[in-house]
User: Fold these one by one.
Assistant:
Number 1:
Amino acid sequence: MQEIRFVCGSGGLGGGKVVAKALDEAMALKPHFIACDAGTTDSGPFSLGSGRSNYPREAVKRDLEIILSAARRAGIPVLIGSSGTAGIDAQVDWVVDIANEIATEHQFKVKTAAIHSEQSPEYLKGLYRESRIKPLDPAPPLDEALLDRTSHVVGMMGVEPLQRALAQGAELVIAGRCSDSALFAAMPIMKGFPEGLAWHAGKVMECGTQVCESAGRGVIYAKLTQEDLVIRPYGEGLKCTPQSVAAHSFYENGDPYLHVESSGTLDLTNSTYEAVDEYSVRIRHSGFKHSENYTVKLEGAEKVGYQSVVIGGIRDPFFIRNYDTWIEDVRKKTTTSVSEILKLAEKDYRLDFHAYGLNAVMGKLETETKPPHEIGIVLNVTASTQDLATKIAEISRQPLLHTPIPEWSGSITSIAFLHNPVPLDRGAVYRFCLNHVAIPRTQEEMFRTRVLEIG
Amino acid sequence: MTQLAELATLIRSKNAGPFVLTFDILFKDEKKYRRVKDSGVLTRELFAKLYKCPVDIVKFFVCDNALGFKYSIPRPTFQGEVGDPDLHGGQQNAPLMAVEIP
């Protein structure tokens, strides 16, 4: 095999960016596989904690239908990673179900490998007792009680589980939590292509058209040889430039050069980027260094409570200039009432006031001192149950509405509420509780593959 | 003196995972990139002052092949923690925009 060709169908399955026409253009170049990341932690811990996907079922089906149909016509495999946003087992099964519906409707049979990557508290406690869980920097504190409290923990797979699925002849791989880049690196590495360039291909392709000068709707195509990697987009108005591709290694990475994966580290220190034509960029000299230990990054979420939200605004300049003392009065009145009515101490719940227009976005880091003409207030109430959070939010309504300032005498209404009823219930909220890696006893034990025929 | 925002094509902040906040300052024009690089204004100390954090937690990268500078720090509040005001970390870049470059 002199070269291997592949396509990124979408930077996020369900995001609606895949366009059939652009994919057809890339398919004309006879790629060997299509890969597509379907998840992220960037949207926050909710999906991992609750199991809910970022995208509606219809949106995932729409994208997968375009990709799977094109791949079946060409007879090439499709790899989907971080299925259903967080890649927990139920989300993998959800995407398998969607794929099955597509296959049934189109009347094709697809040999499918579903790879589960969720980790049980019992298994993780076993690793922990053997000092096989190591913190990354920075990491929240870890103990066995935390592992018991987690809603879900997933291990991020590298290329190996994907390669095992491909070796079994899978035409569709629906993987749990997965390194985005591994989806693209798995098959090229299996076929003997250079690991540095294979991983680098994944790094620049996994976000789809974000690697272009201006992102848009379309697909990314790559051709990898023993010497170089050439990538180009297909889609209206899309082009890659050496600078856009080089700069993409900056995106969402703490280090622009070194990227740690399960089996080692991708090193872009010596990578070069050159224009091939108006749309395409050639990459060379990317390195990959194998690590001593095979590590699996862990992601975990735990429930921290329930929230109720109050939204309102203030416009009266006297209130605005008194904001800090006024809101402190509101807080005190609220906590006093909560203590009297619900018998809760301040440590039992949280009131977070966010003052939009003043410093809500940057908090203590805000550098702007000019007074605003309007302040939007969002009060987040967090408590151990939804019932309590709602009740505390209801109690905060009167202090927000009628806390006076020295400038005015007589009864005054101090806030413009947006909603009736005032509180909005948000349900359960979660936090990321792990930034650790596991060192499994064997490379296989954290990932479970089930091969089935769908359609 | 020129503000950094007038020289760069993109100054952005973003999560790099839930625990790290990263800042990119990117250029299309190599001359402007060189001007900023050669000015020596962008340092870890400058960032620590702007973002009120200890110097030793600031990582700083100068990347000639991408015409860019990168700063990374541990996230002041982990992403999505109760009280975190910026879920994607995407609106923390403003203080860098006003940095004066000779």
Note: The first strand of chain B starts at residue 2 and ends at 3.
Number 2:
Amino acid sequence: MLEGAQFVPAFLSWLVPEWPLFLKIHVLGLACFTYIVARRLVPLVRAARDPRFDRPVTRLGMVLKYWLGQWKHPRYKTAGSLHILVFAGFILLVIRTFTVLLAGVPENFRLPGRPGVASEAYGVVTDYALTLVFLCMLFAMVRRLVFKPARYAVPARYGKARAADAIFLLALIALLMLADSLFEAANRAAQAQQGLPVGVATVLSLPWALKTALASTSLPVLSTLSSRAYLLHEVVFYFLLCYRPFGIQFHVETSLFNVYCAKLEKGTVKPVDWGVGDEHLDEVKSFGVKTFEDFTWKQMLDFYSCADCGRCSDQCPANAVGRPLSPRFLTIKARDYAFEHYPMLRRPGNGQPLVGSIYSEDEIWSCTTCGACEEECPLLVEYVDKIVDLRRGLVDDGKVPQSLQKALKALESRGNPYGKLGKKRADWAQAADFQRTCSVPTLTGKNGADTLYFIDSITSYDDRMQSIARSTARILTHLREKFGILGALEKDSGHEVRRFGEEMLFQSLRRDNVQAIKACGAKRIVTADPHAYNALKHDYRDVPPVEHISQLIARGVKSGAIGFKPLADGNSVYTYHDPCYLGRHNQVYEEPRNVLDAIPGLKRVEMGRSRDRSFCCGGGGLALFYEPKEEQRMGVKRVQMAAEAGANVIVTACPYCLANMEDAIKVAGLDAKMRAIDLAELADQQIAREVPKVEGREAAVIQQECAVGRSS
Amino acid sequence: MNILVCVKRVVDTSENEIALNSAGDDIERNDLVYSINEPDNYAVEEALQIAARSGGQVTVVTVGGEDDEEILRREMAMGANQGVLLTDDCFAGSDGRGVATILKAFVRRGNYDLILTGVQAEDGAAQVGGMLAAMLDYPFASLVTSIEVLDSAKLKISREIEGGNKELNEIDLPCVLSIQTGINEPRYVGMRGIRAVASIPVPSYGGTELGLDGGTVGAAAAKVKRTDYFVPALGKGAEMFRANREENVEKLIELLAAKGGLK
């Protein structure tokens, strides 16, 4: 209750006659909103489980960083700045909006309080905040109507354009700001005319401008204006509240929860069924996502939370090369499905298969799990787990492209996708010239070696990639590591097997590898393959810690254990391509660059898209066997980016990236101007060795043998 | 429709490095990976699709030993209702006609409307299907690339003709068809599927159960015998174009045109 008659603003008494109407709207609006949200929660209740309430402190940190701090937004300068301003405005305006809403209800519903310095200051701040939001809405509408940024466009195959809805919502927010301002302005104008205090003039704000305009309006007109403005504000507020759950602005309500419940472990893949241990998977009737209800509640919350901003698809390499996949529409189509099958009034429909209705098989296989979409999403919507879950559903139904079936079958029978003999897995180390300079023992648990070099399939069997294995072994030797390999006992890490949805085969490969790793007696693992690195780090349990070779080289450079001789080729310009599973999924960005920068005479440029915005080469593992429908290869687009950056040598740190880059260089017709090399190969080539005389051969000869790719 | 699919376990040519054994009469069979003969897998998929459309049961049968049960389980994991193993010491060394005789005895025990085989075994001679049809006095069509069930007594099938042409036939049931690869896209069978059928019993029948006269099958009855096995000597190596791109393309076009590859 307010004390003293002089503090009771006149406008409150103006609203009294209309209280019954205002109250009805309040009750109706709140009831509608509650009902709508309850209906929206129906599928979430039916959904699969998903534990997202562990580690509350970390999660609160996520909320502070990504929700309150709007961490991802500046990555898109215009839209991001606009959003930060609007978000800040909204946060500031929360109390004001409720204060205005409460002005129209009987006094005993209102919170006690009296005007003070704090509330005066809050009034000033929010006058400007709502002006800012209002201007941002105008700007955003102009942007949508006139400038039409390309990423908002809806390709014909994904349905109708959604710009009208977006503009309608922007206009409603602008109207809300206008109604608030008009209400304030009418009341303040009246107070001024009655000689009551009106507080600080918020010059150039929207309420101030309106108040100035209304200065000489008569009190009865102001009275009407005030109550009409209140009514408009109330109606628009509740309309927005109830309309948002039907479209892209539902994120206003859901984002806080979506960010709090976000995935905390990068690089991991969710289990088939949370709460069912690997040993009980045989009892699970159906694997993966087949119908909408197979999604977890958090995956559904993702669908509700998507703001349709298009950043995911703008970054998606599959979308960029014309594959039938757009992460944005993966979400939007699922949301449309949810809205259609969980309607407001009728009973929910029965679950029907998603692939074949809203999704196509090609769409689900087109993803390389590079993670660019997830990295970009301001709302932390997850994609890779959904793709993997949908693939698990396809695998369970036997719907696997023939080209992948062959590789999967070979993995089952031979432990590698090429169908090569296990006993030939270590043949790369048998090259005669290599053996003279470097010995690679097979670990038996009794060699006293503490480091295991895990090679993985492509580097073991592919003629070209074997050079990476030899370089890695030579670097480990130079670093005086006591290391060895698993030899024929090593199987494919299964990294892509898991990400292509064949969980049981992955677990079988993992079982074999874990057994061999435990028996080999190593205390740590080194690999040059980021996919193996990610698998050993995130998918395997109970194995020694794993490092990527770039991390060892970087450490060696720092400690002085590795010194580089100057680059002979002074005219080349180098660029580093971040492999997805080293960079985005594991945040190893600096070490490879530090290694390159330590090589005397090496000129390095950055591509426009690098580090966490790196553009996938086309994918590793089973992705090499998949025959996608696309207009262009991802790799070709990538080497063109390197050319644009002025580079003529692409350095990467992943055998799959290297394979894709080398192919792409040829396809792009750049083979005369550009080449690709692995970081381990380059480091091996440039290491300054004190070369001992081996069997009377000259140092230079050995140096030459160490040269990249020629050692066999 | 009651469908029987005859399948065979063969050395997987895509996953093995085939070498002759020291005797020179067979390939080195240690360290080999076996799998179902690929065209047979298409035949099973086709049977499953027909059963899904028109109803019915799919039985998969093979002639062999204990090791061959593995492919029956794989096909059961695909969806076949039953797997049957025909095994007997006296079957060993059968030629194509011997295998057809064994299969015929099995067919006579059941009531099958349609019998499918793969177009040929990867290590075989594309003969069992035709012989089986003749022995049963059933109509036979080979190289089948599509099957449509017209009614309970008739099928409409298309067949592949050399040169890429196709012909359409009507064929009376019961009949035997040999299925060409590419007729469908066989579904994937993962470890999970195989584990799910691991405990289903696979019945096996020997010569006595099938009512076979031991003298009509096996090595003694075989009239076709392998006398040698060899890897042909490599012919002249491929020609590499090592000039620049434009010249290479020009040369390639010239060669293709000369050989009739370009019209």
Note: Residues 405 and 625 of chain A are 9 Å apart (CA to CA).
